Amino acid sequence: SAVISQKPSRDICQRGTSLTIQCQVDSQVTMMFWYRQQPGQSLTLIATANQGSEATYESGFVIDKFPISRPNLTFSTLTVSNMSPEDSSIYLCSVGRGRPSYEQYFGPGTRLTVT
Amino acid sequence: AQTVTQSQPEMSVQEAETVTLSCTYDTSESDYYLFWYKQPPSRQMILVIRQEAYKQQNATENRFSVNFQKAAKSFSLKISDSQLGDAAMYFCAYRSADTDKLIFGTGTRLQVFP
After folding, report:
1. With b meaning 16 or more CB within 10 Å and e meaning fewer, what string describes A71-101?
2. Which residues of chain B have pLDDT under 70?
3. pLDDT at residue B34, rounded to an integer
4. Residue A8 near chain B (CB below 8 Å)
5. What SS3 state is found at B86?
């Protein structure tokens, strides 16, 4: 497994602003992912964060709205841009080793509320 | 496209008793993995158990075991000797063998009563 931390753990933001969420892992991992969990809902994969190249986005998610960086094998950021109340969700980082990842381990999540 | 269905939004069990959470999935693939994750109120998603589709033997992790019925596309989780700390949302998830993407069900909220 891996020890994963996320910052911030929660935030309340105003409509139209942007928030950057950080994900830090205690050891090098092959794969890093970002998921969204809307209130009372299940988890949906936003994108795979690729080290040294552009992230791979799932259908319905675009880079302009959710830019992602992954400068090395232990760190990634997700930015939620031009926020609206519909972006209020929990955003979770997950990591895996190998490709494809045999198992994924999740961070504690960031609870975002947009007013 | 693959789908995962959890038909029980909520379940409850008495401490020390056994409870089974249901999960069905739809896929045309023969090689895949299935998972149960636990999400307590703290939000931390915890991997409970994993099952490889090519394995006939049901996975077991201490008090947690699965009943994997490949032909029926069913993957239920049995929790034995339930404890108060088992109270959480439980998510069933599917992953194709050649991708990283986890597809989650809608979850089952488990309550444990003393």
Report:
1. eebbebbbebbebeeebbbbbbbbbbbeebb
2. none
3. 96
4. no
5. helix
